[in-house]
Amino acid sequence: MGAGNLRINEARLWDSLMEMAQIGTTPKGGVKRLALSAEDMAGRALFARWCEAAGCTVRVDAAGNMFARREGRDPSRPPVLMGSHLDSQPTGGRFDGALGVLAGLEVLRVLQEAGVETEAPIELVNWTDEEGARFGRAMIGSGIWAGQLDAAEAKALRDAGGMTFGAALDAAGARGDAPARPFPADSYFELHIEQGPILERAGRRIGIVTGAQAQLWLRATVIGRDSHAGTTPPSARRDALAGAARMVLAVQRIMREAGEDGRGTVGALTVLPGSPNVIPGEVRFTVEFRNPSEAVVAAQAGRFRAEAEAIAAEERLELAIEERFRIPAQPFDPACVALVRDAAARLGLSAMEIVSGAGHDAVHVAAVVPSAMIFVPCRDGLSHNEAESIEPGEAADGAAVLLEAVLARAGRVG
Amino acid sequence: MGAGNLRINEARLWDSLMEMAQIGTTPKGGVKRLALSAEDMAGRALFARWCEAAGCTVRVDAAGNMFARREGRDPSRPPVLMGSHLDSQPTGGRFDGALGVLAGLEVLRVLQEAGVETEAPIELVNWTDEEGARFGRAMIGSGIWAGQLDAAEAKALRDAGGMTFGAALDAAGARGDAPARPFPADSYFELHIEQGPILERAGRRIGIVTGAQAQLWLRATVIGRDSHAGTTPPSARRDALAGAARMVLAVQRIMREAGEDGRGTVGALTVLPGSPNVIPGEVRFTVEFRNPSEAVVAAQAGRFRAEAEAIAAEERLELAIEERFRIPAQPFDPACVALVRDAAARLGLSAMEIVSGAGHDAVHVAAVVPSAMIFVPCRDGLSHNEAESIEPGEAADGAAVLLEAVLARAGRVG
């Protein structure tokens, strides 16, 4: 009942990845396919053509999510879903998202080529705007579909040019007729690059993803007083950057105390007025903590608040800390996770359990459909970067595990 | 031979300051008169009208510097100069620069009203682009005039829109016929707000400025590796911001060790890519040290380099530090400084010696003409800020000292 004699075509999968990477290719060898941009639309069109050629029918929902359906022997059975996303960061890599979509396409092609029928239908999904690089919120399409993100709120999100997500869907012609809400589905499998160094360091080929980390995001504003750098003596300074620098180091310290599971990042920081000879009067920065445990991120955020407030008091600064959002830890479905584990074992691929540090469409989908993810290593753990890199064999190994898991759920006929 | 019965008209001076502040007025009560903007040109036109009404002839040089000449009994004598600048920061105050120009105008009006003749001519100067807010370099007009700044280099400086200083001079119609180079002058006096808190804290009305601080400006670039905030464990991070934060604190520490004379500022800092969920791969920031002693700023900069390099090595970051420029300490002319001291004493105004922490046109002019400056306090030491504030009586006191000093050099006839 498993994949048996079926084999992933490593060269075909790689060629498809490279062809997709030509759309929005950047001078440094990465891709720029911002959600609903001309490049994204070109990628979506290519995806639809490839899926139709693989014998699927493609439908699009009101959030722009694309579902390529390969009919099952019993069309009434809930489909087995697989997928990921084709949009990218502004200076993104060739594999983040694209690997999961095109490995799913390779699964469909293998089945078509071998004339394999499955009991349940299989649907390959390209979720709209996973990256969040354009409208400031990640995993929009899967969030709307899974009811984890209010559709009206999502459609009102604006990009830097002031265009809303809703208007961009229409302008691009990406809005479809199907309702953007969950339909009965058997399961969901998503293959993705790890985007971190853990598998590579451990020398494992496959990550059996047991769930996703809890996240807690904060925004801090530090107010001092902007004054002249040449005329203001030390005792009269209220330097917002001097205070913010101490707070950045507090985030580092809190992260390190959680050991190798610790994640604490100040990723964006803006200094105002930002002139070389003006003592900064205001600094705004983001903080995010992640951990497999929600209790740990809550405690980390609490400790950061306390330390930052103490620093602000010492430096005579005002401080406001706003919680932007929390994402609870999302465990994946044990039965689906077990299928990934079994598939890796059957294929003789070294594997280890791992918790996803990044958000993924699967995290939203898991709220309504039994889900699991498969990770493959990427060079130096590098992602969200044009230099993101994997080997063809790694892509094929991940696709082989995906094929096994999907076939096990969908049920091979005969 | 002094000012004798002559009295500054406090209300008239204040009214002129307030009328000038209407040009480019900002919602928060400051001014925006960027050099060679429409607002600056309107301010310059008003200045010319007022000077002509006060019996002066106005000439403009090739750098846009405006000289309003009140003829002396002996036109062949080198004129006594006074002045400052009418351009402002983007969110500047009403007094930075304007006080020195309009106090000079008040001096001319007092002399005209009383029919006082002087031996030497008196010239009131409005220097072009003191602030440096538009073309990225401060004290351009006085720098060109005094030969401290190469005219060709200055004219090639570009604003954010790509327009050069030279093109902006022509576009605004601000370029005059007189050559922009030093002519024989007896002396130069510049009244300015302190732009710091020292006089106010000491409860003194007048600052006898003995010279200007040495400055040394650096630009630092810290390179780490941008990577995913959720997937990169502490041991794999090369966080450019974590390193830069420690470097910012090193600047603070080095500044504080110089006591109340210490000046060390990181005013601009940019984080790349600047996304909440990406560990910063690059941080660029400015550093400037100032001190009355050149040896001290050189030692501070050397220590900063050493500490920053040690931090970069510890944090596995690359670091480049570039010296942008040094401005040597500029002592003012002892005889001119003595006239300021004497004038304050004669007027019964509390005074103290002070070193200018800011750059001023007088610092350039002092290289070719015996010069001195007069400071008056400003509220909370606040400047380069729309909330910059002084009292009418403080403006008048400063103008009275200026009148005494200028008359002492120009020689009252009869």
Can you tag this structure with a few keywords?
Aminopeptidase; 414 residues; homodimer; 16 strands; 12 helices; elongated; nine-stranded mixed sheet; alpha+beta; Alpha-Beta Plaits
What does this protein look like?
The structure is a homodimer of 414-residue chains. The first copy, chain A, is an alpha+beta fold. In chain A, 35% of the residues lie in helices and 22% in strands. The first copy, chain A, contains twelve helices and 16 strands. In chain A, the strands form three sheets. In chain A, strands 1, 2, 3, 4, 5, 6, 14, 15 and 16 form a nine-stranded mixed sheet that branches. In chain A, strands 7, 9, 10, 12 and 13 form a five-stranded antiparallel sheet that branches. In chain A, strand 1 and strand 2 form a beta hairpin. The model of chain A has no long low-confidence stretch (mean pLDDT 96). At the A-B interface, strand 8, helix 8, strand 10, strand 11 and strand 12 of A face strand 8, helix 8, strand 10, strand 11 and strand 12 of B.
